[in-house]
Structure formats: C-alpha cells, structure tokens
Amino acid sequence: MGVTAAQLAQDSPADVVRRQYxxxxxxxxxxxxxxxxxxxxxxxxxxxxxxxxxxxxxGVTSNVMEKLAxxxxxxxxxxxxxxxxxxxxxxxxxxxxxxxxxxxxxNVRVAHAFVVRGGRIVRFEQFVDSAGVRDAMTSG
Length: 140
Prior knowledge:
5 helices, alpha+beta
C-alpha cells in the first residue's frame, strides 16, 4: 500500500529522508522515487564513480541506485545522525558494500545534505571519501 501525497506533505523533512534510506536499503526503487520531487536535483560527489548531477526520480534511480546495484553487493547507506534545520536535513552515515568485480569490502563515512519541500526531496548532495570507494573498486 503506497503513501498518498497528502500523507507525504504531513511528514517532517527527517521522516521523508528516513523513508528514502529505508527504500534504498530494501532496493524498493518505486518507494524511493515516491520520496523525490519531480524536479529533484541529486548530486553525487565529483570523484565518486557516479559523480554528477541527476534530475527526475527515474533519472536518479536509473543513474545511481541501479548502477550501484549492478557493481556492488549489499550496498547500504547506514544513516546514524540527523541534523535538521527546517527543510534542510544533513545525515551522517556510513556506506558498506562488497564490490562485485574485486570482492573488496567498502566501509566509508559519508554526509548527505537534503532539502525537503512539500513532503518530497528537492535537492540532495553527497560528500564521501571517494578514494575509499575507488580503493574497493581496484584489485590489489
């Protein structure tokens, strides 16, 4: 059973962001897209393998989540600390995964900055130790 637009608008920005993490961890791309505004601007850090800015819910899931799933096993963003200021939510987290090509484990800290309006994420920016990610992607 999906969440209605009226229910989304009543959720706090932190609730919307948390629902995005839950959907991502479960691999539920439909539920994840439901947390994103139609005009979302989603930015992955330069130097990260998927570095760049993506727009639209389908653009985000096809260019980020689906590609992560293709290259990594058990990719999870473990959200642990939320700092909320109105519509702005910063989350300190940790990425864990295993790279499919190298078999190497990933365990790096990350910060995510979100802007939530009307119950949807309108902006996302990732800050991550991209060298740690690249290390897990290289043999040796």
